Amino acid sequence: MSSTDPRFDRIVDAYADRVYAHAVRVLGDPDLAKDATQEVFLRILKNLPGYRGEAALETWIHRVTFRVCLKQRKRKSGPRQITPIGVQEIERWMSDPNADPEERFIRNESRMQIAALISRLPPVQASAITLYYMEGLRYSEIGDALGIPAGTVATAIHRGRERLREMLSGEVLR
Amino acid sequence: MQCAEFREEYQRYLDKKVQGGPPDDLCVHMDLCPACTSYAGAMHGIDQALQAMPDAEIPPGLLTSLRELPASLRETRETGLVAYVGRYAALILAALVAWIVGSSASEEVQLLLNGLILAAGAFAFTAGLLKPLYLHQVPDS
Predict the structure, then answer these.
(1) What percent of chain A has pLDDT over 70?
(2) Domains in chain A: how many in total?
(3) Are A94 and A163 within one domain?
(4) Residue A101 sits in which domain range?
(5) With a cut of 0.95, is the ipTM above it?
Protein backbone atom coordinates (compact mmCIF):
# COMPACT_ATOMS: atom_id res chain seq x y z
CA MET A 1 0.00 0.00 0.00
CA SER A 2 1.28 3.50 -0.67
CA SER A 3 1.72 6.19 1.94
CA THR A 4 0.22 9.66 1.86
CA ASP A 5 3.69 11.21 1.72
CA PRO A 6 5.63 9.81 -1.25
CA ARG A 7 8.89 10.65 0.52
CA PHE A 8 8.19 7.98 3.14
CA ASP A 9 8.45 5.05 0.70
CA ARG A 10 11.72 6.41 -0.65
CA ILE A 11 13.09 6.82 2.88
CA VAL A 12 12.10 3.25 3.77
CA ASP A 13 13.84 1.92 0.66
CA ALA A 14 17.00 3.94 1.25
CA TYR A 15 17.37 3.67 5.02
CA ALA A 16 15.55 0.60 6.38
CA ASP A 17 18.58 -1.68 6.26
CA ARG A 18 20.87 0.99 7.71
CA VAL A 19 18.49 1.79 10.56
CA TYR A 20 18.14 -1.92 11.32
CA ALA A 21 21.93 -2.43 11.19
CA HIS A 22 22.47 0.51 13.56
CA ALA A 23 19.80 -0.81 15.94
CA VAL A 24 21.04 -4.40 15.91
CA ARG A 25 24.60 -3.30 16.71
CA VAL A 26 23.54 -1.07 19.58
CA LEU A 27 20.88 -3.40 20.98
CA GLY A 28 22.50 -6.74 20.18
CA ASP A 29 19.17 -8.44 19.72
CA PRO A 30 17.46 -8.90 16.33
CA ASP A 31 13.96 -8.82 17.81
CA LEU A 32 14.60 -5.63 19.75
CA ALA A 33 16.25 -4.15 16.67
CA LYS A 34 13.17 -5.01 14.60
CA ASP A 35 10.90 -3.29 17.11
CA ALA A 36 13.24 -0.32 17.25
CA THR A 37 13.30 -0.05 13.44
CA GLN A 38 9.50 0.03 13.36
CA GLU A 39 9.41 2.69 16.02
CA VAL A 40 12.01 4.76 14.18
CA PHE A 41 9.96 4.71 10.97
CA LEU A 42 6.75 5.42 12.86
CA ARG A 43 8.40 8.53 14.31
CA ILE A 44 9.69 9.48 10.87
CA LEU A 45 6.23 9.03 9.38
CA LYS A 46 4.69 11.15 12.11
CA ASN A 47 7.26 13.94 11.85
CA LEU A 48 7.86 13.91 8.10
CA PRO A 49 5.20 16.54 7.31
CA GLY A 50 7.04 18.95 9.61
CA TYR A 51 10.51 18.05 8.31
CA ARG A 52 11.92 21.12 6.55
CA GLY A 53 15.40 19.79 5.92
CA GLU A 54 17.14 21.85 8.65
CA ALA A 55 19.26 18.78 9.40
CA ALA A 56 20.47 16.37 6.71
CA LEU A 57 17.96 13.57 6.29
CA GLU A 58 20.57 10.94 7.10
CA THR A 59 21.61 12.75 10.30
CA TRP A 60 17.99 13.12 11.36
CA ILE A 61 17.28 9.43 10.77
CA HIS A 62 20.38 8.35 12.72
CA ARG A 63 19.42 10.74 15.53
CA VAL A 64 15.94 9.22 15.75
CA THR A 65 17.48 5.73 15.66
CA PHE A 66 19.90 6.59 18.46
CA ARG A 67 17.10 7.96 20.66
CA VAL A 68 14.88 4.96 20.06
CA CYS A 69 17.78 2.61 20.84
CA LEU A 70 18.53 4.51 24.04
CA LYS A 71 14.91 4.00 25.07
CA GLN A 72 15.07 0.30 24.20
CA ARG A 73 18.35 -0.15 26.08
CA LYS A 74 16.72 1.18 29.25
CA ARG A 75 14.07 -1.52 28.94
CA LYS A 76 16.57 -4.26 28.16
CA SER A 77 17.32 -6.97 30.70
CA GLY A 78 20.75 -7.66 32.28
CA PRO A 79 23.97 -8.42 30.41
CA ARG A 80 24.54 -11.78 28.74
CA GLN A 81 27.48 -14.08 29.35
CA ILE A 82 30.27 -13.71 26.83
CA THR A 83 33.26 -15.99 26.54
CA PRO A 84 36.59 -14.21 26.06
CA ILE A 85 38.25 -14.88 22.69
CA GLY A 86 41.72 -13.75 23.64
CA VAL A 87 43.59 -10.78 22.28
CA GLN A 88 46.42 -12.92 20.86
CA GLU A 89 43.96 -14.93 18.80
CA ILE A 90 42.39 -11.77 17.44
CA GLU A 91 45.85 -10.57 16.45
CA ARG A 92 46.59 -13.88 14.73
CA TRP A 93 43.29 -14.06 12.83
CA MET A 94 43.61 -10.55 11.57
CA SER A 95 47.26 -10.79 10.56
CA ASP A 96 46.87 -13.63 8.06
CA PRO A 97 44.72 -12.73 5.04
CA ASN A 98 45.45 -16.06 3.31
CA ALA A 99 44.11 -18.30 6.03
CA ASP A 100 42.50 -21.63 5.18
CA PRO A 101 38.67 -22.06 5.26
CA GLU A 102 38.68 -23.20 8.86
CA GLU A 103 40.74 -20.21 9.90
CA ARG A 104 38.43 -17.94 7.94
CA PHE A 105 35.44 -19.50 9.68
CA ILE A 106 36.99 -18.82 13.08
CA ARG A 107 37.84 -15.31 11.97
CA ASN A 108 34.27 -14.78 10.93
CA GLU A 109 33.15 -16.05 14.33
CA SER A 110 35.39 -13.48 15.98
CA ARG A 111 33.77 -10.73 13.94
CA MET A 112 30.37 -11.96 15.01
CA GLN A 113 31.49 -11.93 18.60
CA ILE A 114 32.85 -8.41 18.29
CA ALA A 115 29.55 -7.41 16.70
CA ALA A 116 27.76 -8.85 19.73
CA LEU A 117 30.12 -7.09 22.12
CA ILE A 118 29.34 -3.70 20.61
CA SER A 119 25.89 -3.92 22.18
CA ARG A 120 27.54 -4.17 25.60
CA LEU A 121 29.25 -0.82 25.20
CA PRO A 122 27.58 2.31 26.57
CA PRO A 123 25.02 3.53 23.97
CA VAL A 124 27.04 6.55 22.80
CA GLN A 125 30.16 4.40 22.24
CA ALA A 126 28.15 1.67 20.51
CA SER A 127 26.42 4.14 18.19
CA ALA A 128 29.62 6.10 17.50
CA ILE A 129 31.49 2.92 16.55
CA THR A 130 28.60 1.68 14.42
CA LEU A 131 28.23 4.94 12.54
CA TYR A 132 32.00 5.32 12.11
CA TYR A 133 32.80 1.81 10.92
CA MET A 134 29.59 0.61 9.32
CA GLU A 135 28.18 3.85 7.94
CA GLY A 136 31.53 5.48 7.27
CA LEU A 137 30.38 8.81 8.75
CA ARG A 138 32.81 11.54 9.78
CA TYR A 139 33.16 12.63 13.42
CA SER A 140 31.19 15.82 12.76
CA GLU A 141 28.33 13.88 11.15
CA ILE A 142 28.27 11.38 14.01
CA GLY A 143 28.32 14.30 16.45
CA ASP A 144 25.28 15.84 14.74
CA ALA A 145 23.43 12.54 14.89
CA LEU A 146 24.22 11.85 18.53
CA GLY A 147 24.01 15.45 19.69
CA ILE A 148 27.62 15.61 20.94
CA PRO A 149 30.74 17.54 19.80
CA ALA A 150 33.08 15.89 17.28
CA GLY A 151 35.85 15.69 19.91
CA THR A 152 33.56 13.69 22.16
CA VAL A 153 32.84 11.35 19.25
CA ALA A 154 36.58 10.63 18.91
CA THR A 155 36.81 9.93 22.63
CA ALA A 156 33.74 7.67 22.47
CA ILE A 157 35.27 5.66 19.62
CA HIS A 158 38.64 5.38 21.40
CA ARG A 159 37.03 4.29 24.67
CA GLY A 160 34.74 1.91 22.82
CA ARG A 161 37.66 0.18 21.09
CA GLU A 162 39.56 0.08 24.36
CA ARG A 163 36.60 -1.50 26.12
CA LEU A 164 36.19 -4.05 23.32
CA ARG A 165 39.82 -5.02 23.83
CA GLU A 166 39.23 -5.40 27.55
CA MET A 167 36.11 -7.48 27.00
CA LEU A 168 37.84 -9.71 24.45
CA SER A 169 40.73 -10.36 26.79
CA GLY A 170 38.35 -11.15 29.63
CA GLU A 171 39.34 -8.09 31.64
CA VAL A 172 35.77 -6.83 31.76
CA LEU A 173 33.49 -9.81 31.87
CA ARG A 174 30.41 -9.18 33.92
CA MET B 1 57.10 8.35 25.26
CA GLN B 2 55.05 6.94 28.13
CA CYS B 3 52.70 3.97 27.66
CA ALA B 4 49.57 6.07 28.25
CA GLU B 5 50.69 8.54 25.61
CA PHE B 6 51.52 5.70 23.23
CA ARG B 7 48.02 4.22 23.60
CA GLU B 8 46.42 7.58 22.95
CA GLU B 9 48.61 8.18 19.89
CA TYR B 10 47.99 4.67 18.61
CA GLN B 11 44.23 5.24 18.73
CA ARG B 12 44.72 8.44 16.71
CA TYR B 13 46.86 6.54 14.25
CA LEU B 14 44.05 4.00 13.79
CA ASP B 15 41.55 6.80 13.14
CA LYS B 16 43.72 8.24 10.37
CA LYS B 17 43.76 4.89 8.57
CA VAL B 18 47.34 5.55 7.39
CA GLN B 19 48.77 2.95 5.04
CA GLY B 20 52.22 1.55 5.66
CA GLY B 21 52.29 1.11 9.42
CA PRO B 22 52.55 3.32 12.47
CA PRO B 23 54.77 6.41 12.56
CA ASP B 24 58.38 6.11 13.76
CA ASP B 25 57.86 7.40 17.31
CA LEU B 26 55.25 4.71 17.93
CA CYS B 27 57.52 2.03 16.44
CA VAL B 28 60.39 3.10 18.70
CA HIS B 29 58.18 2.72 21.77
CA MET B 30 56.96 -0.68 20.57
CA ASP B 31 60.56 -1.87 20.20
CA LEU B 32 61.10 -1.12 23.87
CA CYS B 33 57.73 -2.11 25.34
CA PRO B 34 56.26 -5.61 24.80
CA ALA B 35 53.02 -4.68 26.61
CA CYS B 36 52.34 -1.82 24.20
CA THR B 37 53.30 -4.03 21.24
CA SER B 38 50.65 -6.49 22.37
CA TYR B 39 48.21 -3.61 22.91
CA ALA B 40 48.87 -2.29 19.41
CA GLY B 41 48.35 -5.75 17.89
CA ALA B 42 45.05 -6.20 19.68
CA MET B 43 43.80 -2.72 18.78
CA HIS B 44 44.84 -3.23 15.16
CA GLY B 45 42.96 -6.55 15.12
CA ILE B 46 39.84 -4.96 16.58
CA ASP B 47 40.05 -2.10 14.10
CA GLN B 48 40.35 -4.59 11.22
CA ALA B 49 37.48 -6.68 12.56
CA LEU B 50 35.26 -3.62 12.88
CA GLN B 51 36.10 -2.53 9.35
CA ALA B 52 35.23 -5.99 8.05
CA MET B 53 32.09 -6.33 10.14
CA PRO B 54 29.41 -8.15 8.17
CA ASP B 55 26.28 -6.15 7.43
CA ALA B 56 23.30 -7.05 9.57
CA GLU B 57 20.69 -8.37 7.17
CA ILE B 58 17.25 -6.93 7.53
CA PRO B 59 14.78 -9.68 8.57
CA PRO B 60 12.35 -10.88 5.91
CA GLY B 61 9.02 -9.13 6.19
CA LEU B 62 10.31 -6.07 8.03
CA LEU B 63 10.61 -3.99 4.87
CA THR B 64 7.03 -4.86 3.90
CA SER B 65 5.69 -4.01 7.34
CA LEU B 66 7.54 -0.68 7.25
CA ARG B 67 6.01 0.14 3.87
CA GLU B 68 2.58 -0.67 5.31
CA LEU B 69 3.06 1.58 8.35
CA PRO B 70 1.13 4.53 6.86
CA ALA B 71 -1.83 2.29 6.08
CA SER B 72 -1.84 0.66 9.52
CA LEU B 73 -1.52 4.07 11.17
CA ARG B 74 -4.49 5.31 9.12
CA GLU B 75 -6.39 2.17 10.09
CA THR B 76 -5.63 2.75 13.78
CA ARG B 77 -7.00 6.27 13.49
CA GLU B 78 -10.06 5.12 11.55
CA THR B 79 -10.76 2.34 14.08
CA GLY B 80 -10.50 4.96 16.81
CA LEU B 81 -12.99 7.15 14.95
CA VAL B 82 -15.46 4.27 14.53
CA ALA B 83 -15.22 3.43 18.22
CA TYR B 84 -15.71 7.09 19.07
CA VAL B 85 -18.85 7.43 16.90
CA GLY B 86 -20.09 4.07 18.22
CA ARG B 87 -19.82 5.24 21.81
CA TYR B 88 -21.81 8.38 20.97
CA ALA B 89 -24.50 6.33 19.23
CA ALA B 90 -24.73 3.98 22.22
CA LEU B 91 -25.13 6.92 24.57
CA ILE B 92 -27.90 8.46 22.46
CA LEU B 93 -29.67 5.10 22.24
CA ALA B 94 -29.41 4.58 26.00
CA ALA B 95 -30.80 8.07 26.58
CA LEU B 96 -33.73 7.37 24.24
CA VAL B 97 -34.53 4.07 25.97
CA ALA B 98 -34.31 5.74 29.37
CA TRP B 99 -36.61 8.54 28.19
CA ILE B 100 -39.23 6.08 26.80
CA VAL B 101 -39.10 3.91 29.93
CA GLY B 102 -39.09 6.93 32.19
CA SER B 103 -42.11 8.58 30.58
CA SER B 104 -44.38 5.91 32.05
CA ALA B 105 -42.64 5.74 35.45
CA SER B 106 -43.20 7.70 38.66
CA GLU B 107 -42.02 11.29 39.08
CA GLU B 108 -38.99 10.30 41.25
CA VAL B 109 -37.81 7.71 38.70
CA GLN B 110 -38.27 10.25 35.87
CA LEU B 111 -36.17 12.77 37.82
CA LEU B 112 -33.43 10.22 38.40
CA LEU B 113 -33.37 9.15 34.74
CA ASN B 114 -33.31 12.78 33.55
CA GLY B 115 -30.33 13.36 35.85
CA LEU B 116 -28.54 10.34 34.42
CA ILE B 117 -29.27 11.45 30.84
CA LEU B 118 -27.91 14.93 31.59
CA ALA B 119 -24.75 13.48 33.20
CA ALA B 120 -24.18 11.16 30.24
CA GLY B 121 -24.69 14.07 27.84
CA ALA B 122 -22.20 16.23 29.74
CA PHE B 123 -19.65 13.38 29.70
CA ALA B 124 -20.15 12.79 25.99
CA PHE B 125 -19.78 16.51 25.24
CA THR B 126 -16.54 16.77 27.23
CA ALA B 127 -15.14 13.62 25.62
CA GLY B 128 -16.12 15.01 22.21
CA LEU B 129 -14.14 18.18 22.87
CA LEU B 130 -11.06 16.22 23.89
CA LYS B 131 -11.31 13.52 21.22
CA PRO B 132 -9.80 15.44 18.27
CA LEU B 133 -6.60 15.84 20.30
CA TYR B 134 -6.57 12.17 21.20
CA LEU B 135 -7.19 11.02 17.62
CA HIS B 136 -3.99 12.67 16.43
CA GLN B 137 -1.81 10.73 18.83
CA VAL B 138 0.41 8.15 17.16
CA PRO B 139 0.54 4.82 18.98
CA ASP B 140 3.91 4.38 20.71
CA SER B 141 4.65 0.83 19.62
Answers:
(1) 72
(2) 2
(3) yes
(4) 87-169
(5) no
